[in-house]
Amino acid sequence: MQNAPIRAKNADVSSRVVVAFRATTSNVMKSANVNPITYTSRGDLKRLEAFCDYPLDSSKAHTVRSLNCRACGCNNTQPVLLLGDMPLANAFAKTAKQARMLERYPLELVFCEQCCLLQITKTIDPTALFKDYMYFSSYSDTMLSHARDLVQRLVVERYLNSDSLVIEIASNDGYLLKNYVELSVPVLGVEPAKNIARVAEEGGVPTLVEFFDASLGSRLASEGRRANIVHAHNVLAHVPKTNEFVQGIRHILDPKGVAVVEVPYAIDLLRGRAFDTIYHEHLFYYSLASLDHLFGRNGLTIRDVEHVDIHGGSLRLMVDTRQSDVRSQAFYALQNEEIRWGVSSYQAYENFAKHVEKLRDNLKNMLGCLKGRGKSIAAYGAAAKGSVLLNYLELGPDTIDFVVDRNPHKQGKFMPGVGIPIRETSYLAEAQPDYCLLLPWNFAEEIVAQEDTYRRGGGRFIVPVPYPRVIAHDAMDVFVSN
Length: 482
Description:
This protein is of the alpha/beta class. It has three domains: 1-65, no CATH class; 137-348, Rossmann fold, CATH 3.40.50.150; 353-471, Rossmann fold (3-Layer(aba) Sandwich). The chain contains 17 helices and 20 strands. The chain has helices spanning 26-31, 42-49, 96-100, 126-130, 141-157, 177-182, 194-202, 214-222, 242-252, 266-271, 288-297, 329-341, 352-372, 384-392, 426-431, 444-450, 452-456, and strands spanning 5-6, 20-23, 61-63, 77-86, 105-112, 118-120, 166-169, 187-190, 207-208, 227-233, 253-264, 284-285, 301-308, 314-320, 377-380, 403-405, 422-424, 435-438, 460-463, 469-471. A seven-stranded mixed sheet has the order 9-8-7-10-11-14-13. The longest helix is centred in the C-terminal third of the chain and has 21 residues, at 352-372.
């Protein structure tokens, strides 16, 4: 029967309601009250067929609808981008075969019209993601400099001394807290990854190996460990129970203290077409509007906000527990800018998928053209965003010869899903490929400077986002001609 609904075998799949429709016109979708995400790949159809009682026709459009915002509970989320089925971005494998056989999960971005929050639809058990983690912040010079400058500023502004306490949630290898230690300010790190916490401890940063939530926050407060400063950098996006996490911050924050929270900025993601920052570890993508909803709902107030460059564009919030409506001029300026942009309107998000698809096609064409001309191509940085990009574009060893990375914990392994080998960074200048795809493009300036030997040897870096461009040994932003 034309346009008949596809009956779902299971009404509760992956903690979300999935409704699929065979539809050929937007009018049918409207009449069925379904928000469309179009599926075109065989993998997408195969996954949908698992929920339906007859095969799907690849010539037709198929849609799914995801419900229930994790933050506010609203059941009116709208589709923004479908990236298909992906392996976990940091699931580095010991062999190429294992890398290609990794389990895959849907990666879909949706928008909550109630609290303005962008989020993905699939939640992975945090234990599987973070108990043995491969991301060490100290391998980035940019991250180290960013942390050092912030700590030096806060010690002066907040009059910190040996009687103070600074707590960092998701403290990683101690890259930030060690700056306080050097200034004789007491610290405590909270880090769930045992392997990374061990490195922090060895560096002189006391660290609890636990996941942070309201319960842990309450326990620390009952022990008298309430902080003058609470740091939470690039972690809020990772936490499924985001309300409980924020409540935990409130528990451990001294009444006169401040929480310094940094999150990648959703508006920068959309404007910069940074689709590769969307992966299963990042459940949420925050605007100031969505953050204000979240903190206000849980008894905290955003006093000030800065727009910083780290991670391709982030917000740095100053948050406290004081009962006052006073906010900074910067807060109101950014709030008004978001209103003008249309942060609460779904229309502002609709074109993102089209821009991403165009970027994908242009980059694939560029790489295909280079391979067709006999050029060799490697990649730099076994970052999570690199895993997303390689899998979304379906780039394997037939296109990318190898990936190099500074992190010795990743060297000798293979990129998730695609099976490309990971080598030490010195191998880039040794092998001297014609082109090198720069996967952690948000650290382009730092990496290009580090790899000057490769560039002087004639090597060229390809920066993929927000549009494919080439950095040659003697010029910037030189486009590759097809």
